[in-house]
Amino acid sequence: EIGEVDVLKLTQISHGNYLISPVFEVRSNLTNQVFNLEYTSWKMGRNPGARGIIFLETDGQITHFLVSKTHKFSTNEQVYDSIGGPYFRVFQNKVENIPKKIEKEICFHLGIDQLELKQVIDLGICHPDYSMSNNMSDLFAAVIDISHLPKLSPKEDFRTTNKPVGFELEVVHITEFLDYLNTKINDNYFLSAAARILSRDTLNLDLIK
Fold first, then answer.
1. Do the Cβ atoms of 7 and 39 come closer than 8 Å?
2. Could you tell me which of 139, 171, 174, 182 has the fewest CB atoms within 10 Å of its CB?
3. Element (H, E) at 82
4. CA distance 148 to 168
């Protein structure tokens, strides 16, 4: 029994390279009607990774944030996206298994050889769509201290191509944060992470232009 239905049997399983979709025959406890319910899940488990926002800090003040830019096959459009992905984990306020393509591009923009995070904040979990999937992702915010680095000058001509689908990164001044949330970013993980950041006093974000 799940909620107001009894699960009678599993009738079908469809799968691709990344997703699996089981179909169940169920009976309503309210009307006794028999019908089908289904959902989609990652094949590697319902909580395969983490997504969030990385901020840059100079002398104790948040000055920039990072946002990825990728072309999505499913919607055939280029979109702004949160940082992270499968196998990316937040554990005991540390980030594990950061994708190499993300690490390389961050290092390129900042002019550093090795990525070090000053602070990682666990922001809980996010479900993309309860009605369609049992998937969820951990949410996080992270801070990179760039106080010791030369003046930041984001590079526009770098694009990671170590995988068949490219990846771009934008370094955006923090005063543009709300504009990006309201007009450019539709990724639910980025928006959810931003909402939890803005509802807490963990990070000092000066959003006034």
1. no
2. 182
3. none
4. 25
